[in-house]
Amino acid sequence: MAAVASASSVSPAPLWQRAVPHVLAVLFFVLLACVYFSPIVFDGKTLAQHDITQFQGGAHEAQEYAKATGQEALWTNSMFSGMPTYLISLHFPGDWSVYLQKAMTLGLPAVVANLFLALLCGYILLVALGLRPLVAVAGAIALGFSSYNLAILAAGHNTKSLAIAYAPLVLGGLLVTYRRDKWLGAALFTVGLALNVRANHLQITYYLLLLVAIFGIIELVGAAKAGRLPEFAKRTALLALGAVLAVGVSFGRLYTTYEYTKHSIRGGQELKTAAAGQAGAKPEEGTGVDRDYAFQYSYGVGETITLLLPNFYGGASSMPLGTDSNLAQAGLPTEYLSAMPTYWGQQSYTAGPVYMGAIVCFLFVLGLFVVEKRTRYWLLAGTILSILLAWGKNFETFNYLVFDLVPGYNKFRAVSMALVIAQLAMPILGALALSRVFGVGIKNEKLKIKNGVVQPEQPAPDNQFLIFNSEFLIKKVLYAGAITAGLCLLAWLASFSLDFAAPIDGELQKQGFTPQLLGALRADRADLLRNDVWRSLLFIGAALGVLYFYLKGKLQLLPAAAIMVVLMLVDLWGVDKRYLSEKNFQRETIAATFQPSPADQMILQDKDLSYRVLNIQNPFNEAQTSYFHKSIGGYHGAKLRRYQDLIERQISTNNAQVLNMLNMRYLITGDQKQPVQRNPEALGNAWFVSEVKTVNSPDAEMAALDKLTPAITAVVDNQKFPGVKEATYDPQGNTIALTDYSPNALKYRYNAARDGFVVFSEIFYADGWNAFIDGKPVPHVRANYVLRAIPVPAGAHSIEFRFEPKSYAIGNSVSLASSIALLLVMGGAIFYALRRKGDERTLVAA
Fold this sequence. Notes:
Layout: H1 15-36, H2 38-41, E1 46-47, H3 50-69, E2 75-76, E3 83-84, H4 97-104, H5 112-128, H6 133-144, H7 147-155, H8 158-179, H9 182-198, H10 202-226, H11 229-249, H12 251-261, H13 291-294, H14 326-329, H15 358-370, H16 373-391, H17 396-405, H18 419-437, E4 449-450, E5 453-454, H19 470-494, H20 505-510, H21 515-551, H22 557-579, E6 585-586, H23 590-593, H24 598-604, E7 612-615, H25 624-628, E8 630-631, H26 641-649, H27 656-661, E9 664-668, E10 676-678, E11 686-688, E12 691-695, H28 698-704, E13 713-717, E14 727-728, E15 735-742, E16 745-752, E17 756-763, E18 769-773, E19 776-778, E20 781-783, E21 787-792, E22 795-803, H29 806-835
Parallel strand pairs: 7-8, 7-9, 12-13
Antiparallel strand pairs: 1-6, 2-3, 4-5, 9-10, 11-17, 12-14, 15-16, 16-22, 17-21, 18-19, 18-22, 20-21
Helix pairs in contact: 1-5, 5-6, 5-8, 6-18, 6-22, 7-8, 7-22, 8-9, 8-10, 9-11, 9-29, 10-16, 11-29, 12-29, 15-18, 15-19, 16-18, 19-21, 21-22
């Protein structure tokens, strides 16, 4: 049974006095973010982010169109022969939360703002839980400087970073709603969730909601036991309304994404037969991504120890080694030491381990002893679930069941990302444990003690705080230190029985690595592990010492808390710099990276309205080509499923006829002597065919492409388009030409002596593209698995395609209405907080 002490009846200090520590904390966070990213803030450099560079390439056409016309490009032909811009670059004017985000980032540059937001939102959460400002600063550092946060920024996963940064606001609102003030809590929850969803990384939001669901279950059980179910239901209903409003703010983005997902590789597979060289059948239609794809990046079971020891498995896939390394001593030339394959785990690639911090792990274990049960169980359960999900294919029994049964889970990949749940839960529990140690009343030995917990003279309300006896806390601090230090020592002992062999070692031998060099590399991997053991032991020992001397009365509260802040910062900062340091910055701006190559310059001399280009140098994982041309390839994690099928089964097998029907006019070869080849067989923007053949399944439609001559024949799936019949036409004398091009609209003029059937080299997408002949709407069909086609009457006529998705119009209207409602909620919350009498009572969150 948790005991509490009476709340203080002392009048609260003036508002400005209470605000001073928080203002100082915010300024401190600005300073930290600016110093970490000092090359951006002070030297004018940019962070070399691969994914952001690729994004700029893919978004260029849409952004230029918006600048020129003031209208949004809802479709782009710059990637994969055409796709919606919903997940590329699309602005929703009705979503006003963008202005709230701008206000919260204080005008800081991108990535600097991301780190600042992670610190600020973590601080808001912990202050909302009633923690002292210095303790809240320590917890915010633990949340913001977790190594994963910096590693993903180095890779360019900015939206993921923002979604993680806003997650503490959601959790803070959740806790305040149930355990303190339901109105202020619900407002904070709504704002936090609106910003989290706006970040548009639904996988992170999904993991956050799993943590929220665990909290809800545990809170429900507690409410049932205490007979508070009616009040629990009221607060839950209030949060549900807040969630609806938060989702409404981003409804336009969510609605269009939902609509697109059905057609993307995240929406399952229509084809039932396997591609050549692949065993087994494809998943059924609409089941989500393939299992193998989803679990491609699974955290190793043994790798979980990196939460405490970052270099246990060698760190990132490649790490620099010094001139004093075993490899250097074995004679490896110095120029190779800057990037060596130190990682020896089972993942195909890793930008770095997920390191929570040695001190955070120590405090997390301490929290399991001293934090109130409901909160302890919630955060522990979230951490365990996080680890199990991250194991992915390394724990098939559990994860395949989750993949098959839990709604929505099979839409995501890279399950190692599930560790973001632990990344939230562990620092929160650690901060609450630190708050317990630095709690009020520690030295009041006259208080009645039972089982180490101060007993109240009378029952206290729910929103008051626990107080522990110092001797009780000293024991728990020593227990936590012994456990975490013991894990470190076990890892050190285990290192002498490990072989440190990596899957890549065989490839190194083929490249000329001698047995001596390979042995030296494995010795370096062992050294990295052992060095981090002693490093973590040092930080655990230092943190334990601070808490011990504070509890013994040898150290005052402020210096003790300040030392803990510094220790946590030094611990995490030092590891973060391994994965995002000065070497990641460049003088060159992103725009400067897109300089046209000689091949690009040659192609750009062709001023025709629309044609396509294929860069055979890694075509489906680069967007440099997309910056300058309408590309057959591109870079995106959610391509259209049918186009992915076309890539796997036709384009990858060099089916020239398929490239012709996609209007591939130019091929970038990478050969300096002949950088560009023109394809004279490209069929152009549209053409009349001689015959239409029908098939009865997607598999038959795909198979027909193997030997199809698209200039003569069009293939239509009769099951999807039953109105189309097999027919023959005489296209002699018929002409058609593209007369006007924009991403959202295409206009053609044609002249036909008789009725015909026209195929367009444009990607079919039913949810938005509308066809018109002479301004009158007409149906159009899908031909050749991915293209558009229309039966047309004889004579001289115009054809127009317009991309007019209803989802965008409806979604934007709902977003606007919800944004207005969100502003009213925020205004009401501020008014309520200012009118509310001061309440210095501390939240029961621990």
